[in-house]
Amino acid sequence: MKKQITVAGLAALMALSLAGCGTNNGGTTPSTSDTGATSATDTASSSGYNLQVKDLNGDGIITVGFAQVGAESGWRTANTQSYKDYFVEANGFKLVFADANQDPDKQKQDVRDLIAQGVEVIDLAPVTDSGWEPVLQEAKDAGIPVVISDRQLSVSEDLYLTYFGGNMYAEGQRVTDFLKTYMADNNITTANIVHLQGTIGSTAQIGRSQALTEAAAANGWNIVYEQTGEFTQAKGQEVMESFLQQNKDFNIIYSENDDMTYGAIAALQAAGKDPKSYVIVSFDGNKSAVQMVVDGTIKAIGQCNPLLGPQVGDLIKKSMNGEAIPKITYSQEVLIDSSNAADQLKTAFGS
Ligand code: AHR
């Protein structure tokens, strides 16, 4: 069975998931599950993908090759640490770590190297969404199951075991819904938005940008500046500084991660502007960013959970035991705003 997931298909699927459907829609899209919420009926094995995680060398330890994006953000640091903490011998695993340094070509070579090393399962957190079919086919031909984590891929379902991570489009929709309500509550009638995008072509960027584009069209909002800050603080500051030099009107900053938000805030302060006088919204939920919501500097954050190691480990164990697993499982995530920030601060990740 070959099911090609398009970006539009992903969006529809995410909308379905948000509506609480959580399972397949008549077999035209894969099954989904929100952690702790809905259970799926359509499973990884019924998608036409027949590989199961196995202890191929019989040493009692599963070697997991982790093809990681890089080290661009606080989120990424917490995500890597979660894998390093969980995939240890005491839990029955060994981790082989490959850092792509945000380079999509290097990452494809990293996965090929993991295949050549004979790891028993690969976890791929893709830098960008394109060009993965040949590499995933090579892993499949070598009998190595691939778990996709963090960022979804628009590839055929029969090329990977399962996806676990954020629903980036739904995160974006939570933030744009917040913006709409916040503007109404505060009598803000015009939206002139600075849009700091993440790594172009990553599904984190695609989903969050798509939510903004749609909300802007539906509500008559203006996007006055749109530029990638590549999910880093330094680049976020640089693009905000270059925008400020243009002296254009703006009242909202939609920044696709906390690190770029810190950079944008530093740029505002360096230009003598008070960040609190703008509506700044962000994504992720690092501890410092959540503290800024408490302080009123950031108005809301679309939470994205980086602590994926243990849940991915559970899915791998289920596959080893021959249990059914959902094709897609979304992390449970919320919108963080002034109503819940103090509470969220108690469990926020990072620093
Ligand atoms: O894919 C998750 C995104 O990648 C996070 O929002 C960002 O901080 C990270 O770099």
Which terms would index this structure?
disordered N terminus, single chain, seven-stranded parallel β-sheet, binds alpha-L-arabinofuranose, 351 residues, six-stranded mixed β-sheet, alpha/beta
Concise summary:
The chain has 351 residues and is α/β, with parallel strands linked by helices. 38% of the residues lie in helices and 18% in strands.
Question: Can you describe what's shown?
Answer:
The structure is a single chain. The protein is of the alpha/beta class and 351 residues long. Helices cover 38% and strands 18% of the residues. It is built from 11 helices and 13 strands. The chain has helices at 7-18, 74-86, 104-117, 133-141, 168-185, 203-219, 233-244, 258-270, 287-295, 309-320, 341-345; strands spanning 32-34, 62-68, 93-99, 121-124, 146-150, 162-165, 192-197, 222-228, 252-255, 279-284, 300-303, 328-330, 335-336. It has a 7-stranded parallel beta sheet with strand order 1-12-6-5-4-2-3, with helices on both faces. Strand 10, helix 9 (287-295) and strand 11 form a beta-alpha-beta unit. Helix 5 (168-185) runs parallel beside helix 6 (203-219) and helix 7 (233-244) packs across helix 8 (258-270). The longest helix has 18 residues, at 168-185. It is elongated, with a radius of gyration of 20 Å. It starts with 6 loop residues before the first helix and ends in a 6-residue tail after the last helix. The model is unreliable at 1-32 and 34-42 (pLDDT under 50). It binds alpha-L-arabinofuranose. Alpha-L-arabinofuranose binds at residues 72-73, 75-76, 150-151, 204, 231, 257, 283-284, 304.
